Amino acid sequence: MIYEYRCDYCAKVFEVRASMAEKERGLRLKCPRCGTPSATQVFSAVNVITRSGRGDAPPPFCAPGSGPGCCG
Question: Diameter of the chain by CA atoms?
Answer without folding.
Answer: 51
